[in-house]
Design a protein that fits this description.
376 residues, alpha+beta, five-stranded antiparallel sheet, four-stranded antiparallel sheet, 11 strands, binds flavin mononucleotide
Length: 376
């Protein structure tokens, strides 16, 4: 019996499960761990602080900034924070950049500011050469009223918890009517649920069983509160839904980051058990589909994803991206074909985001890095 099994199996009756449930649900944590936009010294820094609230793959925050003036900055991908194994084309990293720009554009209006964003001012980045800026951003005084979603930017989070109700089609249609630019790209899927569960589960297991992709998650896993606070990035137990006593026990007594624990069949089984529990509570999924698959499509999809997610949050609806089946490595290719067939994807079309959507408890809020560490 190893240390983890011993802890969980010996007298800790609250944890009377054969495998640890890494995704167990418990309370909420609304404390802010992200930079406060209003507290920043200049309009450029306020805008960056708004953008930092955006979702991004593995929470690596692959973002860096060259501040040109108090109101203008260049926005780059931080190449030291990309995910070469799970995101070999850098498609997802670009989506995270788009989400950053949309969070910024919406968020700054709550401070009486507006953002002029010019994408790829020095030409489009290819998936490989990431040295060119993604955008130049100029902040001006807002003449209009704030965006309807401005105050929600700071509230947004990914929720990997089980969902108690779906995003109803009528609500979805109302959102599209409010934000018509989303119409061509966004789909709500609330049929073929068993097939979708099977694809999402199969792809997740394939990613976890592929040593190099699982290792990438291990590298970005923050094993305890000290590490989470020190790095201000990455994925962690509470982000996956494990809080309270169970979190404390695991973080204190189990070295989940060790190779032996991380790659063990027990860990795989417990992660899959928690993942499936949340997955099977899902009654609606959303997909963002583009006609082509260029870096511009990626950034635009990120912008659209952020807008859609924040608009849904107005009704208490959270999203949880399930990217495994969309990823560009061979071990998940069969799941991508299955998902493409199910959604009727044709020609050059690409599913950029696929997420479950529904009502959940308020999730734990993931950290962000300190703003000064992102400035060149
Ligand atoms: C392009 C992209 C892909 C993502 N894929 C996944 C995923 O497959 N599974 C998951 O749990 N979260 C996924 N996420 C969510 C991120 O992990 C999440 O945004 C990040 O950890 C920060 O947390 P927050 O969204 O709660 O602020 C994805 C986010 C983006 C932008």
């Amino acid at each position: 019996m190893n240390r983890r099994d011993f802890i969980l199996g010996s007298g800790v009756t609250v944890l009377s499960v054969s495998a640890i449930d890494l995704f167990a649900i418990s309370g909420t944590d609304g404390k802010s761990r992200r930079p406060d936009p209003a507290a920043q010294a200049t309009p450029a820094l306020k805008a960056i602080a708004c953008g930092l609230h955006a979702p991004n793959p593995h929470n690596t925050q692959a973002w860096k900034f060259q501040v040109l003036t108090k109101t203008k900055f260049l926005f780059f991908i931080d190449e030291t924070r990309i995910l070469p194994m799970t995101d070999p084309t850098t498609r997802q990293v670009h989506i995270g950049c788009g989400a950053f720009l949309e969070a910024l554009a919406i968020g700054v209006t709550s401070l009486g500011l507006t953002a002029k964003i010019s994408l790829f001012p020095e030409g489009m980045t290819s998936g490989k050469d990431l040295s060119l800026p993604i955008a130049v951003v100029e902040i001006e005084k807002l003449q209009d009223k704030p965006h309807a979603l401005a105050d929600l930017i700071r509230e947004r989070s990914t929720s990997r918890l089980p969902y108690t109700r779906p995003w109803e089609r009528a609500e979805f249609e109302q959102t599209l009517a409010l934000y018509p630019r989303l119409k061509d790209q966004v789909r709500l899927i609330n049929t073929s649920l068993p097939a979708l569960y099977g694809i999402a589960k199969g792809a997740m297991e394939a990613e976890m069983r592929t040593r190099r992709t699982s290792e990438e998650s291990r590298i970005w896993f923050r094993a305890n509160p000290k590490e989470i606070a020190k790095h201000g990035d990455g994925i962690s137990l509470p982000g996956l839904g494990t809080t309270g006593a169970k979190r404390w026990l695991l973080e204190t007594f189990v070295d989940l980051k060790s190779h032996d624990e991380w790659f063990s069949e027990n860990t795989l089984a417990s992660v899959m058990q928690g993942f499936e529990k949340s997955l099977r509570s899902t009654r609606s999924f959303v997909a963002l589909v583009t006609e082509e698959n260029s870096p511009l499509d990626w950034v635009q999809s990120g912008r659209d994803y952020l807008l859609l997610q924040t608009a849904a949050l107005q009704r208490g609806i959270y999203f949880h991206p399930l990217s495994q089946a969309l990823q560009e490595f061979p071990e998940v290719a069969q799941f991508q074909s299955q998902l493409n067939d199910l959604l009727g994807i044709r020609d050059q079309q690409k599913i950029q985001m696929f997420a479950r959507a529904g009502l959940s408890e308020r999730p734990w809020k993931a950290h962000r890095r300190k703003i000064e560490n992102l400035i060149l």
